[in-house]
Amino acid sequence: MNWEPLLQVVRGKLEESRESEFPEDSRRLFHGRGHCYPGFDRICVDSYVPAMLVTIFEAYEDEAGLVAGLWALAEQHGYTGLAVQRRYLRGAPVEWEAGEAVPELVAQRGALKFPLTFERQNVGFFLDIEPGRRWLEQQVRDKVGKVGNLKLLNLFSFTCAFSVVARAAGELEVLNIDLNKGVLKRGQINHQYNQLSTKGIRFQARDALRDFKRYDRSGPFQLAVIDPPTRQKGAFDVELNYAKLLEKLPACLADEADLLFVLNSPAHSEAFFRELVANANPGYSVVERLPQNPDFPDRDPDAALKMLHVKFKRA
To answer: How confident is the model at residue 122, as a pLDDT?
Structure first.
């Protein structure tokens, strides 16, 4: 297997990082799943300095050659360990195959750090949604001091990275909602790890749709992030449930609010998403689709992660 085209992309990203303002920021070094690199569609490479993570979704010939080539580049740039996760094997095991295991893994974003675990399929921090985090950061900075008692609703909060970024950007209240108590606990740890006060930051294990009446009076929220799983068995399906959630949402919003709606489903187009939003409430208006993270190129924009900045204004 000739790995040089893949290695060339990684080499360029590593040099780009070295020259950036935050050279140790976590990022994707190679994104095969966007189908922009024929022959390498089932491989991704991520940087979590000083660790490099290679994710392989189906078996390739000469995987050892890929590891050797990547490690040669990684060593030159100061990495101390390279891990490989093979999603095509039962349990998606992770093995440290070059260098040494990195004991305290973190994703880094400027001054913020997020503890990770490579033992799970999702390490605890999504790199592709960084444009959404930047959007929220700017929204908080713009609104602090201008909006009294600023509140953010973070639905499907996972490990609460949006909440951490928002609190680091300014003083506000945040309600983090997720069904999984474990990820909410990690969300609390993420705030503490960054020495951020959790005063006014709440973490509630709720079903975002079915339990709406149990948190809707916590508003009114001037900001909201809605980032659901495409399908969560027995809990949420974007095709069946997203519209229902967006119909309910205005009940807990301020008369004017800025919203980030996210759709991570390759099977649903941007046009479908915009129509879903438009039909949910006449107070919604789409401002723009946020740009893709450039580290995640995709041959088909409709298949890529879709992030819509939506304004809400009560009629």
So the answer is: 83
Question: What CA–CA distances, in Å, run from 278 to 237, 254, 256, 259, 274?
Answer: 19, 19, 16, 14, 6
pLDDT beyond 80 at 49: yes
- CA torsion angle for 306, 181, 92, 225 (degrees, to 10)? 10
Residue among 243, 296, 288, 236 nearest 266 (CA): 296
109: β partners: 112
For residue 312, what are its two tokens?
């809400």
For the chain, how far is it from start to end, CA to CA, in angstroms?
60
Residues 6+ apart with CB under 8 A from 260: 132, 135, 136, 224, 225, 226, 227, 290, 307, 308, 309, 310
pLDDT per position as a tens digit, 164-187: 999 999 999 999 999 999 999 999
Separation CA 196–CA 191 (nearest Å): 5
Closest by Cα among 138, 128, 156, 176 to 309: 138
C-beta pairs of 231-239 under 8 Å, 24+ apart in sequence: 232/179, 235/179, 235/207, 236/156, 236/208, 236/209, 238/263, 238/265, 238/268, 239/268
Give pLDDT tens digits for 18-44: 999 999 999 999 999 999 999 999 999
Mean pLDDT, range 4-17, rounded to an integer: 98
> Any bridge partners for residue 237, and if so which?
231
φ/ψ (deg, to 5) at 277: -65, -45
Strand spans (E) along 49-105 = 51-56, 81-86, 94-99
